[in-house]
Amino acid sequence: MNNKKYNNFICHIINQDFHKNKNLSFHTRFPPEPNGHLHIGHAKSICLNFELAYLYKGRCNLRFDDTNPSKENIKYVNSIKNDISWLGYKWHGNVRYSSEYFSILYQYAKELIYKGLAYVDHLTKEEIREYRGTLNTPGKNSPYRNRTIEENIQLFKKMKIGKYAEGEACLRAKIDMHSSFIVMRDPVLYRIISISHHQTQKNWCIYPTYDFAHCLSDSIEKITHSLCTLEFQDNKRLYNWILKNTNVSHHPKQYEFSRLNLEFSILSKRKLKILIDNNIIQGWDDPRIPTISGLRRKGYTPSSIKEFCQKIGITKQNNLIEYSLLEHCIRKELNQTAIRTMAILEPIKIFLYNLDQNHKEIFTVPNHPNNPNMGTHEVIFTNMIYIERSDFQEKYDKEYKRLRIGEEIRLRYAYIIKAEKIEKDEYNNIISIICYCDISTLGKRPKNKKNPAVIHWISTKNTLKAEFRLYNQLFNIKNPEQQKNFLSCINPLSLVKKNGFIEKTLEQKIQKYINNDRNQLFFQFERIGYFCLDYIDSKKSFLIFNRTVNLRDVWNRK
Ligand code: ATP
Ligand code: MG
C-alpha cells in the first residue's frame, strides 16, 4: 500500500505486517489523559492514528487514559471529544475509558501476584525513589519484596477495600532491581488515591498506573499498532513484560515516533496550566497558545492543522519545527477563502473638500480578486473618510510612499486624492487632513504621471466600531520549553488591542457567526492581515476580530 500523504517508517512496518497477514484487522487508538485540553502536538498523534486507520481500512479508538483522578476532570473529557470531532475525525464505536477495564485489570494484577510476579510494598514514595537507584547505580530490593503470595493477595485486597491511606501501600511488579532499564526496577502497578473518579465515582480507591493500564487496555481493545512518542521507548520493555506475563489473548505492538516541538510554544498541558493559573493567558482557548481550541479561536481551520501535521511528517528525530510552517498552512488556505474587505485599525480622518457634503457613491467590489464565485459587496464613498494613521506622515521623509502634504495617493477601488492641509485642535492633535479628490481618476491611470501607492479607507458613513486583537508570539525566545523558568520569557506585547472600524455593510453577514465556534468567519482586511471573528467575546453590539496571521511571514524576516 502506498500513499503520498502518509508514507513514513510506520507505514513501512504496517505494509510488512499486511504482507505477512493479508487479513490483519488494523486497529489504532488515540489515548489522551483528560488532564487538560489538546494541543497541536496531540493533533500530530491524532492525525497519524486516524489517517492510518483510514488508509489501511482499519479502526481508530478514542480511549481516555483516565487512571489518575487527582488530575482529571470531566470538562477535559468533553473538550477533547469536541476538539477531535472538530478536526473532522470519527472514532470507532463508543468512546473508551481505561476505567471501564478496572475490574479486568484488577484480575490481571492478582494473576501477577499468584505467579509471584507482583507484591505489595509499604515503602514511602520517597523511599521507593531512593531504592530505585540511578542510571549508574543499581537499585535495592524493598524489605517487603519477599512476602508470600497468599500474604500479598490478602494485602492487595485490603488495599482495594480502603484499609490503607494514600502512600501506605502500593502494588509493584517483581522484576529486577538491578536492570539497566530503570522502568524495569519493580515498577509500581497500583497506587491508592482517595478521590472520586469522573467515571467510576467512589467504586475504587486503588488505581492502575499508566504502564499497567495502557498495554492491557490496548490488548483488550485488540489494538494492533500502539503508537506513542519516543519517551516511551524504555517503557516498551515493561509493556511487553506485562503482556507476556498475563493471560491475554492479544499482544499489540508498540512503535514510537518523535513528539512535536514548535518554536515559541509550550506543548505540555502541565505548563500550559501554569500560564493560565498565573493569569498570563486568559484560558485554554487563548489564541496565544497552540491548543486546538486556541488555534481555532485564532482562526486556524481543521484543514490547515491537518496540512501542517502532514508536512512535518513522522520520524524518530526530535527537532524544533518552525512556527512559520504552521502560519504558512493557514495563510495559504485563507488566501483562497477569506473575504477581502477594508478595516481601519487606527483611524485618522480625511476631508475631501471639493466633494459635496451629500456626496455618496456606491462601489460594488469583489469579495475575492481571483474568485468571482465568492460574490461582491458594496462600499460607500463620501466626502469624509478614515484612513490608517500609519498611511499619513506629517514630517518629510523621502522614503515614505504614502500620503504626505502635497503628495497623492490612490484610495482602493476609488479615486486619487492629494493632501493639502492639516486641521489641528488647540493641543496640536490632528483633527483631519484636508485633501483634493481628483474625480477624473476612477478606474483610470493618472495622465502623464506614475500611479501612486494604493491605501485602504472607510467612509465615516459606513463604519462599524470593532476591536482588533493583534497576536504576537507569547514567548520572546524560540524554545521556551527548554527554559527552566519559562515565565520569565513572556513577550509583553503578545497581545495588542486596537479600536477601529470595519465596513458597516458587513454587519448582517457577521451576526450569525457570534457564539458559534463551529463556524469560523474569515476576512482579509486589505493590507493588514487575515482575521477571524472572535466568536466568544464578540457581542451583537460590539465585534471583535482576532488576527490569525499576517499577510507575509514576519518571523523569518531578515
Ligand atoms: P502533555 O505533556 O501535553 O500532557 P502527554 O503526552 O502527557 O502530553 P497525553 O494526553 O498523555 O499527553 O497524550 C495523548 C497522546 O498524544 C499520546 O500518545 C502522546 O504520545 C501524544 N502526544 C502528546 N504530546 C505530543 C506531542 N508534542 N507530539 C506528538 N504527540 C504527542
Ligand atoms: Mg501524559
What is the gist of this entry?
The chain is an alpha/beta fold.
CATH architecture of the largest domain: 3-Layer(aba) Sandwich
List the total number of helices.
Answer: 13
The general outline is elongated
What percentage of residues falls in helices of 4 or more residues? 25-40%
Beta-strand percentage range: 15-25%
* CATH structural class of the largest domain: Alpha Beta
Report on the structure:
It catalyses: tRNA(Gln) + L-glutamine + ATP = L-glutaminyl-tRNA(Gln) + AMP + diphosphate. It comes from Buchnera aphidicola (Macrosiphoniella sanborni). Residues 454-534 form the tRNA synthetases class I (E and Q) anti-codon binding domain. GO terms for molecular function: ATP binding; glutamine-tRNA ligase activity. Residues 338-436 form the Glutamyl/glutaminyl-tRNA synthetase class Ib anti-codon binding domain. It is a single chain. The strands form 7 sheets. A 7-stranded mixed β-sheet has the order 12-25-26-27-23-24-13, covered by helices on one side. The chain has a 7-stranded mixed β-sheet with strand order 21-18-19-20-14-17-22, with no helix packed on it. It has a 4-stranded antiparallel β-sheet with strand order 4-5-6-7. The protein folds into 3 domains: 4-257, 3-Layer(aba) Sandwich (Rossmann fold); 269-340 and 465-557, Ribosomal Protein L25, Chain P (Beta Barrel); 343-456, Ribosomal Protein L25, Chain P, CATH 2.40.240.10. It is of the alpha/beta class and 558 residues long. The protein has helices spanning 9-20, 40-55, 74-87, 102-114, 125-132, 149-160, 210-220, 235-245, 269-277, 292-298, 302-312, 323-337, 507-511; strands at 27-30, 59-64, 96-97, 118-121, 170-173, 188-192, 206-208, 225-229, 253-257, 261-262, 320-321, 339-341, 343-344, 347-352, 360-366, 376-382, 384-388, 408-411, 416-424, 430-438, 454-455, 457-459, 463-471, 495-503, 522-525, 529-533, 543-549. Helices cover 26% and strands 24% of the residues. α2 packs across α11, α7 packs across α8 and α11 crosses α12. The radius of gyration is 31 Å and the shape is elongated. It contains 13 helices and 27 strands. β18 and β19 (416-424) form a beta hairpin. It binds adenosine-5'-triphosphate and magnesium ion. Residues 31-33, 41-42, 44-45, 65, 228-229, 259-260, 267-269 line the site of adenosine-5'-triphosphate.
